[in-house]
């Protein structure tokens, strides 16, 4: 039995210690934010934060995380108000969304240590792959989130997902149809 803390809750996994953390999180804990991409740590879609470090959960076993603290995308911020989550939306850095949780977790781990990270530091800390080509926007989002963290400013420019549709509806007056032109007789 492996004991660890996942998203601030003690967890006991009754799984083989050689089981990759990714599968324990997804299959046993039903935390499906971390994605299986490549299985060899290249893509970063499975990144979670372990004791403050962005780690590929497909490469670490349950036995290796015994007694450690794991944070998944589900617990980064319950209302999706983390500056990096907001900056990802504001910068249009989300394409298909498959790799997004891994980027967010790797970026959040970096920004927790260094909110002044420059592009080279971001590239070194976050070698995740985005096949959709959103990489430059993701870097801008990480930079933007760093600025927000440093200034203690919340990025409120976007509504938090889960907003009641009635609250989001715009009161737009109905457009009147333009009158048809008068018919002229030839």
TrEMBL record:
Transmembrane segments: none annotated. InterPro entries: 2Fe-2S-bd, 2Fe-2S-bd_dom_sf, 2Fe-2S_ferredoxin-like_sf, 2Fe-2S_ferredoxin-type, 2Fe2S_fd_BS, Beta-grasp_dom_sf, Diverse_Oxidoreductases. It comes from the Bacteria. The keyword Cytoplasm does not apply. One of its GO terms (molecular function) is oxidoreductase activity. Residues 1-76 form the 2Fe-2S ferredoxin-type domain. It holds the Pfam family Fer2. Keywords: 2Fe-2S, Iron, Iron-sulfur, Metal-binding, Oxidoreductase. The keyword Endoplasmic reticulum does not apply. Residues 157-186 are annotated as: Disordered. This is (2Fe-2S)-binding protein. It comes from Croceicoccus ponticola.
